[in-house]
Amino acid sequence: MTLSMRVFTLNCGNGSLGETAAEQLLEQFENTDTDLFILNCQEVNFNQALSELANRRQNIVALAGPPMVTHTKPLTQLHNNTGMMTIILHKRDITVIVEGDKQARRAASRFGGSSYNKGGVLTRIVASKEGEIFTIDDINAHLDAFSDATRAQDWANIHRLQKYPVTDWKSLCDAIPDLSCSGYDANTRNKLSLGEMQVNLCAWENPIDWDMKSLVMAPLGNVRESQYSTYKSDQPEILDEVDPKRANRTRGGMVDLVAYNDVEAARERLQSSDSALFKFSSIAISPKRKESRDHAVIGSDEIIITNKSDFARVREAIVCSLVEAAPQLASYLLSEDFEDNEENKIYLLEVYKRYLSPEGLLQKHLQLHAERLHYLEQFQNQNLEVEEKFKQQIFFGPQPWFAIDDEEQPFPTLEELKQRADYQYSVFMLLNLHSQFLNASASKQERELVQHIVDNSLTNMPKDLPSIEQQKWIKQTNQLLSINSLLHSYDRHLQQETEKESVKAAAEATSGLLQEKVSLIAGLKETLTDNKNPGEMLENMDNALDSRVKSLLEQHRHDDFLTKLYHKLKKLITGSELSYGGFFVAETTKLLDEESTPIVAPNSDQSV
Q: Which branch of life, at top level (predicted)?
């Protein structure tokens, strides 16, 4: 027995589908053998949409899923009748119920503006046909329209909806539906490449661009369908019209998409990574002038759902989720060697817990990527050279997040899977440190040293290093990055003092101590350019910061009566009379003396 369906997306502009679109959908559904149409409506007036679809055909039932209220236009602020709603059309011989829903917003308060109005809702749909039960997880979503970083954050929040905390094989089987699908307004407008010649690019044909990385690596269905123009697609010029509200974008593009899991499509993608990320939808109904709906209705090909064994269903769902982010692992799970047995059930459970759980690696990378894009946006008001350099530093190449080197064997045993996941978690932790310290850096030189420290740590960390030692490695890298921050903070103070003294023509003895401090700090910064492991670099820093160096750095450069009085008053108020150099020495010494206590990776069985 099979269940057939199509999934749709339609942004209704805070009104209804429109009589023309509603009639076309009902007529097509009535005249085919398809069992379900799942309509993911955004910015829809709930009452108007249902009035256009319900009780219009004798053999068609319109079932409304739980609404997610939004207020995206001034007139919608006064009521709760608009937002996202999933409407299921089904034939009368099919029984359909909605078991529950989960919502994701950036802000819980409706006064949060787009933070409240953008996000998504997951609806679990249960269909019964001739005694057989089919479960479908459907996501209806609407992403931010103006900020790449905020759009990526929306995606991370929505992606988490379809991930479940699991503890054993039974809970994993209960979590995985027969089909995962989605319909969403991604707000992915065409890009303008502003070189010598202006080029108009479809966002989904440029998946290596950083603003698209999250949407590609963590799909809401590995098969995507759409059209080149879905916003105001009745206006041919919309794809070339520059958007005054969005930098380097046109007003139109492939904005609305539907997606669903298909293991055969995943298999084809794994065999040829050059294959397109989307295909053209079989259904596209353009908006009509003078109707509220200004987006095209996009509908998928017919999807056939079959009841499969728990093992096949779980394996295929995991493969479809990891086909972009972990292609080698996905290929191994699809191989003939990966048979249905108890050992491989444990293996699949471990893969899900490590990579796809709510706190798994894929979700962590989505959050990190959103934060990186946010950091990048902070640099967009600086000169282009600084922005471009920062972009090159903060993003690490276009490769999949969990790619394996060609010479490595792809996870033949459970223990090797755990070792690989531990290593990839450690890589994530290093990248997270890299992003945080890079963003906090106040100078080009400081950023370059952050880059070197993390690059060096990533390069030198052995892949077979025990997990506890990996966490020690991470903490030592954090210590080096913190010392780098302290060095540059103190160096900026010394440079300011140097400028003051050059203006004031201070006494030679005082100037000599200042220059000696400048020289010492330069030498300590040089220590951070080594290509050694973090522990060795910390040891070298400790040796370089010997008692003589500490004494010189702690020494106050001014010893006149007023300066001494100032330091005594400072001690009375703050409890310390440390100079800038003394503070640097104290904080750096504290970092060097820290015990490198390891941290435990999430979803692992290790404990300290």
A: Bacteria
> What would be the CATH architecture of the domain defined by 2-187+209-231+253-363?
4-Layer Sandwich (3.60)
Q: What single-letter amino acid sits at 583? A: F
Asked if residues 5 and 55 have their Cβ atoms less than 8 Å apart, the reply is: no
How distant, in Å, are the alpha carbons of 70, 203, 489, 495, 549 from that of 492?
Answer: 48, 42, 5, 5, 18
- How many Å apart are CA 126 and CA 444, to the nearest integer? 56
**What are the tens digits of pLDDT across the range 331-349?**
999 999 999 999 999 999 9
Query: What digits encode the pLDDT tens for the residues 422-472?
Result: 999 999 999 999 999 999 998 889 999 999 999 999 999 999 999 999 999
Note whether 477 and 459 are within 8 A (CB): no
User: Residue 93's pLDDT is what?
Assistant: 94
Angle at CA 217, nearest 5°, toward 107 and 231? 65
Token pair 């005594």 is at which residue?
Answer: 568
pLDDT beneath 70: ranges in the chain:
74-75, 78-79, 110-113, 194-198, 381-383, 406-410, 501-511, 556-580, 595-608
Residues with Cβ within 8 Å of 456's Cβ and at least 6 positions away in sequence, in order, are 530, 531, 532
Task: Label each residue of 280-323 as H, E or C.
Answer: ECCEEECCCCCCCCCECEEECCCEEEECCCHHHHHHHHHHHHHC
**Cβ atoms 98, 82 nearer than 8 A:** no
Q: Where are the beta strands (DSSP E) in 354-443?
A: none
With both helix axes pointing from N to C terminus, report the angle between 508-527 and 547-554 in degrees, rounded to the nearest 10: 130
Whole-angstrom CA distances from 487 to 492, 548, 568, 591 are 9, 17, 26, 12
What pLDDT does 566 receive? 44
Distance from C-alpha of 286 to C-alpha of 294, rounded to nearest angstrom: 8
